[in-house]
Amino acid sequence: MRITRLDIRNLRAFEDVQLRPAPGINFFAGENGAGKTSILEALHLMAYGRSFRGRVRDGLVRAGQSALEVFVEWDESSPGAGTTDEAPVARPLRERKAGLRHSGHDWSGRLDGDSVAQLGELCAALAVITFEPGSHTLISGSADVRRRFADWGLFHVEPGFFAVWRRYSRALRQRNALLKSRAPSAHLDTWDHELAQAGEPLNRLRQSYLDALQPGFLDLLRELAPALGESRLDYLPGWRRDEMPLADALLLARERDQHAGFTSIGPHRADWRIHFGAIPGRDALSRGQAKLTALAALLAQADHLATTTGQLPIIAFDDLASELDRAHQVRVLTRLAGTGAQVFVTGTEVPPVLADSGIGYTLFHVEHGAVHGDRGVWGASAGPT
Ligand SMILES: Nc1ncnc2c1ncn2[C@@H]1O[C@H](COP(=O)(O)OP(=O)(O)OP(=O)(O)O)[C@@H](O)[C@H]1O
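Above: query sequence and adenosine-5'-triphosphate SMILES. Below: predicted holo structure tokens.
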């Protein structure tokens, strides 16, 4: 995938900005508070329905405005269409476009000229993988971050996933509502059945996704953080799957769930963990090691998505130079430049690794609600020049 146009309106400091990103690495430089991260937030919003800094209603809409707008045009391409020894040669397949208007409460969206009924349709269209200062929570944070990671990947590579996930979520909501209202036990039977019918395939999809991701992930981890030793990824289904099917586990947990007022077991409690050969567990990771582990997971997800769908996702790095040491920056950027992926990187200044390494990039300066670039000047009052 390659974004050819990105318009942002009323998002944080941006009133109206139009960008024409280049292929390969796009570097956005600017002072603190200039709006660099906001550009990545706009992309992330289109791909996930939320910012990595929170929901739209957590301050993403520009002060004094009622809604933000993001419009993206991109080329879908096939990296496998032809390859040289150095890099895949992308062949444009089709031009796509998506627009989103979001007030924090309501939203409307268009995809390829048609209105969309669900935000998920937009998220399924554009794949963006973001590495940002909070990414270490993928490893050191709560299980829901890791579940979201696996589910986002599945959402893109497994066409039947969304329907299964939605069926499970609906059944869970219904069962929890009954538990909360202290409904008679017999009322739970239908939803236990439904939960098990959707939960078993949901579990199988997650298990096989993580199995498929594991080799690439561990290779990358070996390359980025060899000091962590030989590692292993374990999937935890959310109930004692090796001992009983979900239907039995739900029945067994029913009394406890009635007491607690919510469903205590099932795929909504699933998790995955990494066991490191050289350290006792994730609590022993330094913050930098947790970041590198998260980065390995995200890059593996990008590789898997490219192999499975033929589409290289967009890669976004917020404040790369302060997140990774110099050697890791070189490794990661050289690798990405070799894949032909389009990359968005932010920083207060162009890091020496980009300036010195010979890796090609396009530079944009972000300041005062405008973006000036090698490819023109765009901002609130200026059109491309
Ligand atoms: N809802 C809002 N309305 C108007 N301005 C906002 C809003 N939310 C944030 N801002 C401003 O927008 C800018 C956000 O910038 P952003 O976080 O994208 O900057 P950055 O260039 O990534 O900065 P840093 O280098 O400090 O991380 C800041 O100047 C902030 O004060």
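The chain has two domains: 1-127+315-385, 143-310.
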